[in-house]
């Protein structure tokens, strides 16, 4: 399981010190703030606290452990996310147990609140943490293995990567953002347990070609196509690559996607991805960069590769080309639900 350190809202103190102080000194007027850690996975999460040698105090200190589940309700056609808060679990166990585990739903948010009480039920310490039931490293490695098995080895050379958006999107960047495409928050598209959803900011680029190798002339996302050379954004001396997700959408289970995070080395986004995702070599099964001065970029042809670039990009209006919009002609606010019944890209069914 992957451990996430909670951010304390007040100075912290370990539980051993609290127990010793309470046995010989008056109970503190203000409860001490605890650090909590949450280990996450898609099926089961664990909250941990304190040290591993509290058995001497198990008859003196008890705590109440409450877990509150936040349910995310997606409203179609609205960019609003409603959260419903209700009590999921409440129990009283010895402080010496050091942890409590509980079943979780992939992608849901949870709040855990802990009180440490003495024998007189006086609260001497408390803490809280918020976390999401996200992939553990082992689970993400399993998903990566499934993606490799599905994708195969057929690659095709590319000479551009692109974004398709409505004309008003590009005009807004020119008029309101000094011609800078700024990363924005990743939506909920893909697996709910994906670590980057609603956490990491970036810009999606595609390099997908038609089956015969020709460039696409239609887009589901807008009537203007902006293209750059892959060398401009994906120089392996400048950026790192990370495996993020492998999924298909509920409305189209035949088309599978692999999401690759692309981060400037030693940036904040690079640190986040290094901690939570799977590093990829520059030559990986989905997006290959050949070594040497004159690099050749190639893309897997069986899976749709999404390149999530986490840095600003300078807009050059003369690079915009008209492309025929199909379907909605724009992305769906909030993203699409993934297909939770597909056995090719789910191990939690």
User: What is the strand tally?
Assistant: 25
Describe the main β-sheet briefly.
6 strands, mixed
| Average pLDDT | 81
Oligomer: single chain
* Cα-atom radius of gyration: 24 Å
Cα shape:
elongated
Uncertain segments are: 2-25, 52-83
Pfam family, one: PHYHIP_C
Protein name: PHYHIP_C domain-containing protein
Domain Phytanoyl-CoA hydroxylase-interacting protein-like C-terminal: 133-347
Describe the structure in brief:
This protein is mainly β and 349 residues long. It is built from five helices and 25 strands. Strand 17 and strand 18 form a beta hairpin.
What's the SSE blueprint?
Layout: E1 2-5, H1 15-24, E2 32-33, E3 36-40, E4 44-49, E5 62-74, E6 81-94, E7 99-103, E8 109-117, E9 123-132, H2 137-151, E10 155-158, E11 161-165, H3 167-176, E12 180-181, E13 184-185, E14 201-205, E15 218-219, E16 224-228, H4 230-233, E17 239-249, E18 252-264, H5 268-276, E19 278-280, E20 287-289, E21 297-300, E22 304-309, E23 313-314, E24 320-322, E25 324-325
Parallel strand pairs: 2-9, 15-25, 18-22
Antiparallel strand pairs: 1-3, 3-4, 4-7, 5-6, 5-8, 8-9, 10-21, 11-16, 12-23, 13-14, 14-22, 16-24, 17-18, 17-19, 20-21
InterPro entries: PHYHIP/PHYHIPL (IPR042868), PHYIP/PHIPL_C (IPR045545)
Pfam families: PHYHIP_C
Protein name: PHYHIP_C domain-containing protein
